[in-house]
Automatic annotation (TrEMBL):
Top-level taxonomic group: Bacteria
Alphabetical list of Gene3D superfamilies matching this protein: Antitoxin ParD1-like (6.10.10.120)
Native source species: Granulicella mallensis (strain ATCC BAA-1857 / DSM 23137 / MP5ACTX8)
Name of the protein this chain belongs to: Uncharacterized protein
GO BP term, pick one: regulation of DNA-templated transcription
UniProt cross-references to InterPro entries, sorted A to Z: ParD_sf (IPR038296), Ribbon_hlx_hlx (IPR010985)
Length: 95
């Protein structure tokens, strides 16, 4: 089933028009319309993905801020991580 379509007139920079027409001339697309539709579908999918990522980040932030845990300064956390991973590397290098 073919989706409903609507005509939309847009002004594009000359460089983009050249890229679209080049893609059509090289056989990547059958028409300018198909090339632009494909680009817009990618854009739409990326926006949806970004919205999902933003939602996950907001949820993680809510969960993190609702926890009643003591505050640990970032420098201390990174110091602990560096020490832990350094301790893991030294024994491996001695083998």
């Amino acid at each position: 089933m073919t989706p409903k379509t609507e005509t939309l007139t847009v002004n594009l920079p000359v460089e983009l028009v050249a890229q679209v027409r080049g893609a059509v001339e090289h056989g990547e697309y059958r028409s300018d319309n198909e090339a632009i539709s494909d680009a817009l579908l990618d854009w739409s999918a990326r926006r949806g993905s970004e919205a999902e990522d933003t939602g996950r980040l907001r949820q993680a932030w809510r969960e993190a801020t609702e926890v009643d845990a003591p505050y640990v300064p970032m420098e201390e956390v990174f110091g602990r991580l560096k020490a832990r991973y350094k301790a893991m590397i030294v024994p491996a290098a001695e083998k």
